[in-house]
């Protein structure tokens, strides 16, 4: 089976927050790519001929960087998929669609940059906090058990889904 996309984009924040819930998509890409190269607007790895791309800027303002990268990679909007966290989906569940992710600042930034909200998205559920601030929750780290669950169950499911959908 081959991936149906030419580019898989993982939203998240670069730097020290690499195990935060907000970085679930970048963690997934890290599980696929073993060798990452810096480009002017992020990091790139290639697996099975597919470009894996992690923008270098903040998740909340990544739209223009991703638009530039898509242009640099010479691909159309139909040829890439954006992976991101979603608090409205229980931990470990995934959803693939073209609908806007209400409230997700990274998706809002992409929608503004592309002047279109109809692009491929894979939402990885991180669950909603039972109390406290949402910002604190999405920036909190996964527990060791949660990370193990993601790597053993959710990320293989993401790969299977990316090979099937479009």
Automatic annotation (TrEMBL):
One of its GO terms (molecular function) is peptidyl-tRNA hydrolase activity. InterPro entries: Pept_tRNA_hydro (IPR001328), Pept_tRNA_hydro_sf (IPR036416). It comes from the Eukaryota. Keywords: Hydrolase, RNA-binding, tRNA-binding. It holds the Pfam family Pept_tRNA_hydro. Coiled coil: none annotated. PANTHER family: PEPTIDYL-TRNA HYDROLASE (PTHR17224). This is Peptidyl-tRNA hydrolase.
